[in-house]
Amino acid sequence: MMTKLGYSVFQRITTAHLLHKMCLLFLTLPFLASVSTKFVVAKENENANAPYAIGLWGDLPYSAAQEVGVTKLIDDMNSQKLSFTVHDGDLKAGSNSLCDNALYTRSLGYFNALEAPAIFTPGDNDWTDCDRPSNGGFNSRERLDYERLVFFNTNFSLGQRRLAQEVQTQPLCLGVNGAVPCVENRRWTVGRVTYATLNIQGSCNNLCDTAPDPEEYAARNAANIVWMRETFRVAKERNSMAVMLISQANPGWDQSDPTRAPLRNPRTLVQTDGQPDGFQEFLLALRDEVIAFRKPIAYVHGDSHYYRIDKPFLDIQGRRLENFTRVETFGNNQASGTNDVQWLKVAVDPRSREVFSYEPQIVPGNRVAVPAP
Asked: Is 161 exposed, middle or buried (0-12, 13-18, 19+ CB in 10 A)?
């Protein structure tokens, strides 16, 4: 649980101005002392059409064995020339693991061990599910407030090189003490591709599980739709050749995956499995933007722990949206240790027709079923 000092800090956060001041204060906390950060700002490619590579990962680590595997994964990323990396949420297991401050300290260390700029979007395991008794029974909004302080206290990425980002600074989200900026929602452009993160969560996007929070959901969902639509507007203004969106949740796209995602009618996008639907409104808005943009769009998520790249998004007539690709990163497989502690390398070439191409990176030291030769 938080210390008395921690609670008094959050009681004083009543406006975005004070939130900013507290962010600066938290930058001096001891956990940063162990991280060697160069504070070198990464620059966009001088040649906007030049190809580059990025790294995607998430839903890690869920166990002590995976913590060891993550250090090897980070070393593997650092051995390759990457323009930036993104972790798509879930810093720990969903149950029987505390959401204490040490979790975020440890995770910050992982991100700042990456030489390339490191971007993170929150996952349900590290805030919405923190109200589960086995996770410490925390207040979910308070844990998200704390994540905002630790990971999103400047307009730069994490990592040893920092990347300047646009931030959703309007107080559209809800924290413990009311409206706060959705500072975890970020956008950046490298070369001729625009990227954005969106705080979209598993556990029905905070509409189910231990303590559903419809008010928090409604505010954040509206903010996500605003940020997503604005991202496509910005991409058009910049003449971007593609867009990549990154979030945590697998919202479900059709009727094909009952063990891993919500089931929904792929034409109407109505959820059909009887669970609260925290995604339909966003998906309807996203579909409109995908059709209007026409160029390649990659939608990256974690949540269901099953590496795959496919095209599950249909229009209202049941036709596949050809320019849309779903990308799910590797994720936890606790039963097999580091078996799925892997990452995905994405080659980005604005001169190519599809812009994105994908190469899974199986870390030699994390192979389990078939040891490295």
From this structure: buried
pTM, two decimals, is 0.90
Residue 227 domain flag:
yes
**How many separate domains does the chain show?**
1
Q: Are 115 and 78 in contact (CB under 8 A)?
A: yes
Are 20 and 143 a contacting pair, CB within 8 Å?
A: no
Task: Please state, in angstroms and rounded to a whole number, the distance separating the CA atoms of residues 15 and 323.
Answer: 41
Q: 119 lies in a domain?
A: yes
What is the spatial distance between Cα 274 and Cα 294, in angstroms, rounded to a whole number?
33
Q: Which domain does 245 fall in, by range?
A: 46-366
Instruction: Give Cβ neighbours of residue 162 (< 8 Å, ≥ 6 apart).
Output: 37, 39, 40, 41, 42, 117, 156
Q: Specify the amino acid at residue 139.
A: N
Q: Which two tokens stand for residue 223?
A: 């903010």
Residue 10 domain flag? no
Reference 206, options 185, 187, 220; nearest CA is 220
Specify which residues 162 forms β-bridges with: 41
- What does the pLDDT read at residue 48? 92
Q: Look at residue 9 and tell me whether its pLDDT is greater than 50.
A: no
Element housing 86 (H / E): strand 85-87
The amino acid at 20 = H
From 89, 322, 83, select the one nearest 193 (Cα to Cα). Answer: 83
For residues 11 and 268, the model is more confident at 268
* Residue 19 confidence class, pLDDT cut points 50, 70, 90: very low
Which residue shows structure tokens 């990452």? 343
Residue 78: give its domain's CATH number.
3.60.21.10
| Mean pLDDT of the region 191-209 | 97
Residue 306 has pLDDT above 80, yes or no: yes
* 47 phi-psi bin (left φ>0, alpha ψ -120 to 50, beta other): beta
Whether 83 is in a domain gets the answer yes
**Predicted local distance difference test score (pLDDT) of residue 26:** 39
Q: Which residues pair with 197 in a beta bridge?
A: 246
**In whole angstroms, how far apart are CA 322 and each of 152, 261, 296, 362?**
34, 22, 8, 28
